[in-house]
Amino acid sequence: MDHTAHTEHQHHEQQRQERQQGQAHDHGAGHGHGSASWAMAAQATLHCLTGCAVGEVLGMVVGTAAGWGNLPTTLLAIVLAFLFGYSLTMRGVLRAGVDLRTAIRVALAADTLSIAVMELIDNGVILVWPAAMDATLADALFWISLAVSLVIAFVVTTPVNKWTIGRGKGHAVVHQYHH
């Protein structure tokens, strides 16, 4: 009787159960449970910041250029930040040969907390910065406050990503598709 197929099935079943429980299967140094480096967290945050910044800037520019008020402009910027953040992650996951539905799930699991923290901090900084909410595209204050808010969001979000990656969650979920 061939026990190889049975043993292989048990191994794959164990991996599936670990993923369902939110635990990352260790595919290499630094990707496993509890072993997130600051460099890995910074890289994950920079990846997230790239998508967020594109969406955030685009939303602010469109809303400001269209003469919208602060609330609709901010809401557009937040929606686009999530959209671009998720899209950037999905692009890499889809390249790994994963179907669209799985790619969407991976992006949601990997980036939701990171983008939410980033958007909270970034928009919070602009909200409390005197006159930043009323700055126009031609004002240096518009661009300076936006740039500074993104830097502060990066600094605050990096420890969040370190914690989630160390727990096998957040951006750690994406790593299994990069091999």
What is this structure's SSE topology?
Blueprint: H1 4-20, H2 38-65, H3 70-95, H4 100-128, H5 140-166, H6 172-175
Helix pairs in contact: 2-3, 2-4, 2-5, 3-4, 4-5
Which key phrases capture this entry?
179 residues, mainly alpha, 6 helices
Characterize this entry briefly.
The chain is mostly helical and 179 residues long.
Report on this model:
This protein is mostly helical and 179 residues long. It has helices at residues 4-20, 38-65, 70-95, 100-128, 140-166, 172-175. It is built from 6 helices and no strands. The protein starts with a helix and ends with a helix.
Mean pLDDT across all residues, rounded? 83
Strand content range = under 5%
Order of helices and strands: HHHHHH
What composes the largest sheet? none
Choose one word for the global shape. globular
Structural class: mainly alpha
Oligomeric state of this protein: single chain
* Helical run tally: 6
Query: Low-confidence parts lasting 5 or more residues at pLDDT below 50?
Result: 1-32
Number of strands: 0
* Rg, alpha carbons: 19 Å
